[in-house]
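TOPIC: backbone geometry
CONTENTS: sequence, structure tokens:
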Amino acid sequence: MQKLIIHNFGPLQNVELEVKDFMVFIGPQATGKSTVAKLVYYFKNLIPAMIYVFEKDYENYIKFNHEVKTQIKEYFKKVFGPIKYQSGMGYVSYIYDNDIEIKIEMLGARLNLEMSENLEKDIFKLYENYNKLSEEIHSYKNSIANDENISRAEYLFKYKPQDIIPLLSFPKNVSINGSLFLAEGRGYLNQLSSNIQDTLIQTIINTKGKHNFNYLGIDSHYNFKYFMNFLYNQKVPDNKILSYTLWEKYLKRVVKSKLVIEKDKMFLVTENTKIDVKYTSSGQRESIIIFYWLRFLLAANIDYYFTCIEEPEGHLYPTSQKDIIEAIVLSYNSMPNNQLIITTHSPYILTSLNNLLYAHKMAQSNPEATEKIISKELWLDVNRFAAYYMSDGKIEPIVDREDTHLIYAERLDDVSAQINETYYQLLDLES
């Protein structure tokens, strides 16, 4: 069981939560939903930060150890910005299992990093293999046959993950297989200049051709057009045709067109129209990125892939919110160890997920009848799922794990209840 602990960081005061494979955070704006999502993302993506230690040369283990920890802290700053702007003193801690933990303390403008003993041993194992791997990298980069402009760390990701991963004690779902953080407001990406786009997307390729598209908004080597071209050109394998057919159905319902890329220009096309993406609706621009990322997950057959999607409901009508969340669950279910975080303001997202949880529950006793209502590719296992309501610096779990195994009914649409209460108060004035 993995656990995240937060004390006085951002808007969050004292928070402790179990990290599940599928997590949803709902609540008012500025309550810390993105903060929690970024923290989980950060702690699940430390291996690339640690491997960048191979970019330099070192005289001894002390300097090597210092550089590994510096890279981890620098990555934290990239994700969360200047620490000096964080209010107060606090810390965040991530427990990977009983013997593996990382804690970061905010001491004013300074970060203090603490590691469990096992991770300290891992750094030493990296150092023991540093010379051997560095020699291999040097030999490769000087090869006559090599025409790749590749850094040392990229070489390790691409050709030597099997030599790196066993040296580290992280569990399997903390790996370099890949991850993506789709921040809210993603629809504006296609309107930016290429220079700005180049700061938005990073990719690292390992031996199996997998891509680790990191946090949209931090480091990058590739622009938005490269990103969309890559997703657009993925071939869906034969064993995923049924899921792909469902994906196409949801794409037509939500985006109401399909993506076409011609000479580095992106268009949304129907039978009668062909419109440059930048002139389409906000809802289409927001959701097209999500849909083609989901298509990549269907096509890639990559295990232990981690995705975070902020506000998938952006600019969408409620029925389209239902469709996009079902498309997301479809891709999440496509591989048994995929991981996903969603942040949302929408009760329709919760209600849609609750139906999929209910379908999984009813399928245990009546699968055939359940599948006539909801496709089995969409059934959502509550044992891998968690939902939280966030407000006033606190996090409240909202899944009833003892009785219904569904999201608490009063949390599905408490805003409507408040609005209805006001309506009935006004109605009473009529009588």
